[in-house]
Amino acid sequence: MIGAIAGDIIGSVYENRRKQIKSKNFPLFQPACHFTDDSILIVAVAQAILTDRDYRKAVWDFSRRYPDHGYGKEFARWFRSPDPKPYGSYGNGSAMRVSPVGFAFGTVDDVLREATQTAEFTHNHPEGIKGAQATALAVFLARTARDKDIVRAEIAARFGYDLGCTMDEIRPDYGFNESCQGTVPEAIIAFLDSSSYEDAVRNAVSLGGDSDTLACITGGIAEAFYGPVPPSIRQKVLEILTPELWEITEAFCAKYRSALST
């Protein structure tokens, strides 16, 4: 989970279309790095898992408590409504908030069911649900199978994503894309084509797309595979999150720490 939040923070300064880069050579943390809606909603999902698994309520509550952190227009309308309804989204928001599910649940069926539940109260389009399921399952398989070939084959077979390309093949022509179908496969490939947690996040940012969300999705999968993030990265996350968000993050990680050594 910390890996996903760190990815969001690292990619935050490149999210703007005018600031995108096509290189892995950049400072990992810059003074302007900050947490975005991605981190807030990850923590919301984690809090729901720790308590009552009412994902809709937790996401609605946390987004209203932290209202100015880069939410999309449709999602902002959703959380500002007194009784929000699903709005047929297939945006990558369903995928960026789901990584705690991959760490907390112990079977494929449970992971897919819970991932659906984290998505469907906003992102009830089939592609939105698929993106959440694929991301959560990638996290689960990365930490349990610990085999990239299994991750690649299983995700491709279940969801029909083309995961056969390399980063060098994708990077030149890849542009800003906020859909699940235009983000999740690339984020998974950024992990598959990596040699470490940091290398995976650098891969994701270097695509030059929706950098914080790409790095967030990739970071969660990479943490599940490579193990806990380096202490220096963990420390940066602690410094940048609010005390409340860090407290929930720490509580979740303490409860599910064994998931990183499965």
Brief summary of the model shown:
By secondary structure, the chain is mostly helical.
CATH class: Mainly Alpha
Give the N-to-C terminal Cα separation: 15 Å
Classify the beta-strand content into a percent band.
under 5%
Percent range of helical residues = 55-70%
Alpha carbon gyration radius? 16 Å
CATH superfamily: ADP-ribosylation/Crystallin J1
Given helix and strand content, the structural type is mainly alpha
Strand and helix layout:
Blueprint: H1 2-11, H2 37-50, H3 55-65, H4 73-80, H5 93-96, H6 99-104, H7 108-119, H8 126-144, H9 148-159, H10 167-170, H11 184-192, H12 197-206, H13 211-226, H14 231-240, H15 243-255
Helix pairs in contact: 1-12, 1-13, 1-14, 2-3, 2-15, 3-4, 7-8, 8-9, 8-13, 11-12, 11-13, 12-13
